[in-house]
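Cross-check.
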Amino acid sequence: MYLNKKNLFLVISICLIFFFLTYFDVKSSELKIIDGDTIHLNGEKIRFSGIDTPEIKQTCMKNNEIIKCGIQAKELLVKIIADNKIKCVREGKDRYKRTLAECFVNDISLSSYLVKNGYAFAYRKYSKKFIADEDFARINKIGMWSMNFEYPWNWRKNN
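Predicted model, tokenized:
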């Protein structure tokens, strides 16, 4: 009977350990998408480095129609992330104390994806990394490149 109690204790202990590891793993993947280039991951505010997306309230024009391009940038990010896990490579902090990082889903750079799809710009002031992606979107008139728009850094300055 002693061995059975010992085995039972061992099984219960293993189950509890597994439960807590799983519980904290789920909790550690808390994600909130703020806009096209900012997320909160596990309580950490992360700004995608090297790119700039339109602000949430920013609009563009296409065929005399107002397009909510800031919201479209966020929706594109939501779509690619879906239920996938995000991995970020931290590169430092910005002046607002946000973590600067390049983040990936299934080995796809979210920054590259947004720029190639025309809803983010290579932020040349800080990086040259995504210029080829931007050239691709511009040449093929993808996303905002098919619209009349104001660069996000100019829009922020003017609004």
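Residues 15-28 have pLDDT under 50 and may be disordered. The beta strands are 31-35, 38-41, 44-48, 51-52, 60-62, 65-67, 86-93, 99-105, 108-109, 121-122. Passed to J.P. for a second look.
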